[in-house]
Amino acid sequence: MNLMADILINVIIAFLAGSLLLGLHRKVMARVQLRPGPPIVQYLLHSLKFFFKEVSFPKTASMPFYIGITVILAGIWVTGVIVGPVAKGSLMILFGIYAIFKIVEHNSGSSSGSPYGKLSCVRAVFSAAGELPLFAVIGLVFLKTGSMNIADVIAYQSAHGPLIMSIPLAAIMLFALILTKSPYSPFAITKGKDIVSGFETEHYGVLRGYIMFSESIAFYILLWLFLTLFFGPISVVGYVIGMILITIITGVINAITPMLNPNHSVMSQITIAIVCIAGTVLMLVA
Amino acid sequence: MVIESLGGDLFGTIPLGDIVLYLNPLHLFLFVTILLFTVLIAVSRTETQIEALFGSLEENEVKVGKKEFKQRRFLAIICGIATAGAMITGDLFNFTLFMALIGIVNIGIVSAVKQVSVLDSAYQYGLIAMMCGLPLFGGAAIILAATGTLSLFELQTLPLNAMVVFGALMMLVGVAGESGIAPFYASKAEMFRTPGSPFILIIHLSSLFIIVRFVEILLILIPVI
């Protein structure tokens, strides 16, 4: 297939699937909390709606940085689709994309001049330690398979079986990251309702549309990465079932768990990472 | 080849004597992104922070003055260029120099702010960064003494060496302190409360990108596979 067509189709799939999964996530949370909840397509409709709404800019915003940061956010997740599902390239680049996502989270908060955004920005700095699990997972997958390229990792699993069987603790770490990035997570301190919507508070109209578009793709890529790294070459049906299952599990966990305070959130993530890294290294040595 | 298994297939190399510059998808992505952010920072003005005053309906506007703005923008651009250099260098010593320069300009970006809490934080970060300069350069020196080269292209072909592992771990301590990541991030967090959103971005961005690049370097120096 033509490369550009391949990229375009994958970006559309990532956006649609990610939006529907986030809608499902919200529905599951609502049902667990004995509420009817919004329809599953609500998140998708919400995202599309923002692209047609009027844009307004805060008088205090840092321009053109305030606008550029949301465009960059959308751009990096399109790059994520290219590196992941399209090219099956280097995991290091995906790690770099998550690093930039953290930066964007940080700076879309601070660029508006809003105190809520600023608090989200400071929390984003603290929670940078929460990216430790992803870094550790990538390192452990490299130790096991000898490559950082996703295509090589898939080939390794074809020959030796899924990595979930040999390094299960690394899978738990990546699942912890999925939980962190899912909406209303106990670790989602940058978007806590105590600071309204955190870094998203002051972005309206098409700028919010870019943010929601990016969040859908980010959630899809994270689930795709988890299934690809730990369950090897699986079919489209396998991906669909896997993504729905993980979304339901995270929805149930988030529905029954209160948000942790920033210090507890960061320390919990680091503790999970350290325990899983030590366990996996011991398993690899043994 | 280790380098190709980490960042993807090589686009090409530029051999400059002992120093071999090389470019792969990972470096290209990091290099282009940091330059994009640097340009965005160079053309942006700062935000105005609005703070509610306790006990009244008044509010306080915190702005960045023109002189301070120019100083911080200059340092932020230097930081962006240094980080871009660190992303594509193929020489370990150049990497340590870029890292040290990033640490210095990061302190400079916040030192221009006239807020006591921010200056305290910059001072604490400065102390950590200065102390970590020793293991950073010391680690590179040990690797040079043990192998006779600082070219990553050469180092990837050498077998596992205890002194190289020791040097790499010293460099890890140095990079962690200079970039202010965990466990040193607490010394840096207060700096982010200051106004000047575009300049603060480069502090965080340079730290995270340096870590991504150093992970690659670490895996080249310690061929555990």
What is the count of β-strands of chain B? 4
Radius of gyration of chain B: 19 Å
Report helical residue fraction of chain A. Answer: over 70%
Tally of contiguous helical segments of chain B: 9
Unreliable stretches covering 5 or more consecutive residues of chain A? none
Largest sheet of chain B: 2 strands, antiparallel
Instruction: Report the sheet-strand fraction of chain B.
Output: 5-15%
- Element pattern of chain A in H and E: HHHHHHHHHHHH
Largest interface: A-B, 50 and 46 residues
* Quaternary organisation of the protein chains: heterodimer
**Share of residues in helices of chain B:** 55-70%
3D shape of chain B: elongated
Low-confidence stretches of chain B: none
Largest sheet of chain A: none
**Alpha carbon gap, first and last residue of chain B:** 11 Å
Tell me the series of helices and strands of chain B, N- to C-terminal: HEEHEEHHHHHHH
Q: Give the total of beta strands of chain A.
A: 0
Structural class of chain B: mainly alpha
The best one-word shape of chain A is globular
**Measured distance between first and last alpha carbons of chain A:** 44 Å
Summarize the structure in short.
By secondary structure, chain A is mainly α.
3D structure, described in words:
Chain A is mainly alpha-helical and 286 residues long. Chain A has one domain (2-285). Chain A contains twelve helices and no strands. Chain A has helices spanning 3-32, 42-50, 65-86, 91-110, 115-126, 132-145, 150-160, 163-166, 168-181, 205-231, 236-256, 262-285. Chain A is globular, with a radius of gyration of 19 Å. With 225 residues, chain B is mainly alpha-helical. Chain B has one domain. Chain B is built from nine helices and four strands, in the order αββαββααααααα. Chain B has helices spanning 2-7, 25-43, 66-88, 92-111, 116-147, 152-155, 162-179, 186-189, 197-221, and strands spanning 12-16, 19-23, 49-52, 59-62. In chain B, the strands form two sheets. In chain B, strands 1-2 form a two-stranded antiparallel ribbon. In chain B, helix 3 packs parallel to helix 9. Chains A and B meet through helix 3, helix 4, helix 5 and helix 6 of A and helix 1, helix 2, strand 3 and helix 9 of B.
